[in-house]
What we know:
Elements: E1 3-5, H1 8-22, E2 32-34, E3 38-40, E4 44-49, E5 52-55, H2 57-63, E6 69-72, H3 74-80, E7 86-87, E8 91-94, E9 103-108, E10 114-120, H4 124-127, E11 138-145, H5 149-155
Amino acid sequence: xxxxxxxxxxxxxxxxxxxxxxxxxxxxxxxxxxxxxxxxxxxxxxxxxxxxxxxxxxxxxxxxxxxxxxxxxxxxxxxxxxxxxxxxxxxxxxxxxxxxxxxxxxxxxxxxxxxxxxxxxxxxxxxxxxxxxxxxxxxxxxxxxxxxxxxxxxxxx
Length: 157
């Protein structure tokens, strides 16, 4: 595992991006790059998608994002936490600022804990359009879930 520390300015910019995007209050000042794809402050807490940092599930568990959050019902949890994409009928709540193409944090309704990270395929309004039982189709592409390669990499960090 290759690690290198970031300069203070780079660390600050990354933390500011994560806080602004995710609605977190990360205060760590020392950030390292691990294997050119993860961010660590002792523990791995973020990863890069399209050159920008986003919280991993473990990072979301630690820092509790309040933005870009989508909440799914109990029936969807088992599937989503095992890698399935999110279907419209499973969504009970979504941050209305979410736009198609953005990275989102998917949480369970009961505990509001992040169980996956995905890419929105539609805007939040479309995710919640109409009655829950009448909604159809895939609305979030799952890209990181409990037990995947990213999860396993963050476990050995």
